[in-house]
Amino acid sequence: MDITKAKLALREFLAGSFKIHDIKNSDDIFDTGIVHSLFFIQLLIFIEKKFKIELEEGDFDINKLRNINEIANLIVNKL
Questions:
Q1: DSSP category for residue 27
Q2: 3-state secondary structure at position 1
Q3: Among 24, 35, 54, 73, which residue's CB has the most CB atoms within a 10 Å radius?
Q4: Using N-to-C axis directions, what is the helix angle for 37-51 and 3-18, rounded to 10°?
Q5: Secondary structure of residue 24 in the 3-state scheme
Q6: Is 15 helix (H, G, I), strand (E, B) or coil?
Q7: Average pLDDT, stretch 8-25?
Q8: So what's the pLDDT on residue 40?
Q9: DSSP codes of every residue in 31-79
Q10: Contact yes or no for 53/79 (Cβ under 8 A)
Q11: Model-level pTM?
Q12: Tens of pLDDT along 28-74?
């Protein structure tokens, strides 16, 4: 999977969860109020299931996964 497809899947998941369609790939999903810490866990579960990857404890750093670009990079690096 390429990074563009990963970003699209993440945008669709966020849009489906929050009915927000205008989020940019560089928007901080926590600062915008879209995502809170509990939903972050749901996002990680989605990532594992959708992309069939296993995330490790070090992958759960909220400070490194604040926008779609950063999360997509994690996914592509895990694949």
A1: S
A2: coil
A3: 35
A4: 130
A5: coil
A6: helix
A7: 83
A8: 80
A9: TTTS--HHHHHHHHHHHHHHHT----GGGG-GGG--SHHHHHHHHHHH-
A10: yes
A11: 0.82
A12: 888 877 677 778 888 888 999 999 999 888 887 878 788 999 999 98
